[in-house]
Amino acid sequence: MHLAVIPARYASSRLPGKPLAMIGSKSLIQRVYERVSSCAVIDQVVVATDDARILDHVHGFGGNAQMTSASHKSGTDRVAEVARQFPEATVVVNVQGDEPFIDPEQVNAVIAPFQDPAVDITTLAHRISDEQALLSPNVVKVVRDNRGRALYFSRHGIPFLRDVPVGQWLSRGKHLQHLGIYAFRATVLEKITALSPGALEVAESLEQLRWLQAGYSIRVELTDLPAFGVDTPADLAEAIRRIS
Q1: pLDDT class of 70 with cuts at 50, 70, 90
Q2: Residue 159, CA atoms < 13 Å, CB-side half-sphere
Q3: Residues whose CB falls within 8 Å of the CB of residue 25, separated by 6 or more in sequence, listed in order
Q4: What's the CATH class of domain 1-102+228-244?
């Protein structure tokens, strides 16, 4: 069974109540839920929240939602709590609750590698084509080995091209932006949520570095489909413009 869980918190420093923000005739969380539900390889979709307003809203449009602990420090912990209610799930997908335009093909892409029994965790990346994204600490970069496994994630521009001026880095096509969708083998998800934060995670504020530092491999699949997350009022305005 393939389970997709969408963590959704009401609190947000830059956009409070973000999951309930309206984008046209539908809320942000409803748009994410419906797009994930349209993915043929997903058997069950659940919104994981800590707020009754979100719970009631999801139930109101006919979706499935569960209340989770308010003490979770990450979306992964919230996803794991829900996954425990589905012992038949073999693969669990963590879908960001702020991406109203997520493509079902992106969900397919993170699930497909689990045909290989050696795969523990998967995620996505795409080529960076914008210099502002390359240099922004808010855009996470990733480098891979020859088998497509993550070597490192960073908020810094990696790899550093020593003999190339920064203004020419994009032309070399070597930089990948990490997209915040993950899939886990269910048994691995349970193990990684028991890990304590590592030094690399603390330094970069990137949870996936905890898993790498503990020795887990992360398969990074490439996609031509970019992500668009709603984090600020300006992002919300842009999402509304795209729908109009």
Answers
A1: confident
A2: 12
A3: none
A4: alpha beta
